[in-house]
What does this fold into?
Amino acid sequence: MVAYCASNWDACSLQHDASVICISRGTLHRRKQNFVDAMDDYLTAMDKCGHQQDLPVYRHASRQLVLTYNDFALSCFRKKNFDEAILLLNKAIKEEKREKGLYVNRGGKCLS
It folds into this structure.
């Protein structure tokens, strides 16, 4: 029983570490405005957590994904790609309904 618990703990620890690495890499991609790769890394981090929404690392990856959707939308807006910007903001709002800034950004895009 002890061996099983130890190996199970190791597996959980490795999944957590892999998630943290994906989040860190996603952050670097986002800073370089490589939004697609950033989104892929955040989604991978969430997958590695088994989509357990109660885990802090999952919540952090989810939050970073929402911020990436927003940043990508703003980049699309600057390039006059309004449809893509609205689509990205809708995805962000679906994930984080309480973030007022997302609604403001989406409203600004619709009025432009």
In short: The helical segments are 2-31, 35-48, 56-78, 82-95, 100-111. The chain has one domain: 2-111. The CA atoms of residues 31 and 38 lie 9 Å apart. The two ends are 63 Å apart (CA to CA).
